[in-house]
Amino acid sequence: MRYIIPLLLLFSFYVQSNERPMLTDLSSLQWQNRIIVVNEVADVEAVLPLFEKNAAGVTDRDLIWLVFNDDKTLTNYPGALSPKLSANTLETYYIKSGQVILIGKDGGVKNRLDRVDLQAIFANIDAMPMRRNEMRD
Fold it and tell me: Residue 69 in contact with residue 40, Cβ under 8 Å?
């Protein structure tokens, strides 16, 4: 019985340490994830099935995707999203309506597209030196 409280405390600490923080901007993802931001594209209904179909490639490349559409944000980020995330991201990265951008792990914009082309994005990522090192390891 005397071990239950320490075990519960340890479990509580473990659960809390694995929770992702509320995402207000993308700075907390730097050096952890690459990010695809999709802003107000015309074919938003086709975007989610595309991400789902390519889930293994998304996971393998440490990608977090964000789809901004009207006042909604759709994502594969496992934590909570701040209501300010969309405005902060669009302002920081100068993303126009209809644009798709790829942000590298270093926080820099690697590509701007006018539509979601995951094969082009994957090819762009796979050509990056950091990704080549990841594939070797």
Answer: yes
- The enclosing H or E element of 65 equals strand 63-69
Greatest C-alpha distance within the chain:
61
- Nearest partner of 62 among 89, 99, 36, 38, judged by Cα: 36
CATH class of 20-136: alpha beta
In the chain, what are the domain boundaries? 20-136
Question: Consecutive sets of 10 residues in the chain, 137 residues long: mean pLDDT of each?
Answer: 43 48 94 97 90 96 96 94 96 96 96 95 91 79
- Beta carbons of 36 and 121 less than 8 angstroms apart: yes
Q: How do 100-103 and 109-113 pair as beta strands?
A: antiparallel
